[in-house]
Design a protein that fits this description.
about 220 residues, Four Helix Bundle (Hemerythrin (Met), subunit A), 2 domains, 7 helices
């Protein structure tokens, strides 16, 4: 609990917290660091004989207003959001690319007639979409790492391009993956009772939901 003479500091921090959008852990770290800095400044003023309320006003004024702090802090949160989004895409896309073919092995229809050309084209497209997402995710991690060391405008533009690309790849992956699953069920009734297919559908659904949350978090952090 804040002390009574920390009210001005806490009010300042609450205003910052209400206006920041981004990864919860990184946001909490930023605010914790700010709180420590403010309270240290207040303590220094108090040791110099400044009254409590005035010490806080000086510390808050010296620290900076929300208008001064928010652009830099929000940019840092946006970079963190891209990093988290890229990591999730990297993990999910890797699993989908490697595990996609495993859902078919040993199935009762795998040795039967080949599916239509359109089906095979769609299946290939799904793989290429997620391979593209993998490459974008790696690029996103590199951009996030570079942005943490530099604030060059070109990196901010690249950040938006990569994040938009990841969001687009996710949308395409969900649409084409859902279409491929529906087409598979239409071609082979046994697909609905094939355990690897059922497990794959559940895992993919959970992965899509996780990625959608990460994409939303990036969009919110970037468009503030």
């Amino acid at each position: 609990m804040p002390r009574c003479d920390d009210v001005l500091v806490e009010d300042h921090l609450r205003e910052l917290a209400a206006r920041l959008r981004g990864p919860a852990r990184l946001k909490s770290d930023l605010l914790t660091e700010a709180r420590h800095g403010l309270l240290d400044a207040v303590e220094a003023y108090r040791e110099g004989g400044v009254p409590a309320a005035e010490a806080q006003r000086r510390a808050v004024a010296e620290f900076g207003s929300p208008a001064q702090l928010l652009p830099t802090w929000q940019a840092e949160l946006a970079v963190g959001a891209l990093r988290g989004f890229s990591l999730r895409v990297l993990a999910v896309a890797g699993v989908l690319v490697v595990g996609g073919d495993l859902t078919w092995r040993g199935s009762s229809w795998s040795d039967g007639p080949h599916p239509p050309d359109g089906y095979r084209l769609l299946s290939t497209s799904v793989n290429w979409i997620w391979i593209g997402a993998l490459l974008l995710a790696v690029t996103g991690l590199l951009v996030a790492a570079a942005s943490a060391r530099s604030a060059r405008p070109g990196l901010a533009t690249l950040h938006r391009v990569v994040g938009t690309g990841l969001t687009g790849a996710l949308a395409l992956g969900v649409l084409t993956g859902g279409a491929l699953f529906a087409w598979s069920v239409g071609l082979w009734d046994a697909a609905l009772t094939w355990p690897p297919m059922i497990i794959g559908a559940v895992v993919a659904g959970a992965a899509y939901f996780s990625l959608a949350r990460a994409a939303r978090g990036w969009l919110v952090a970037t468009t503030r």
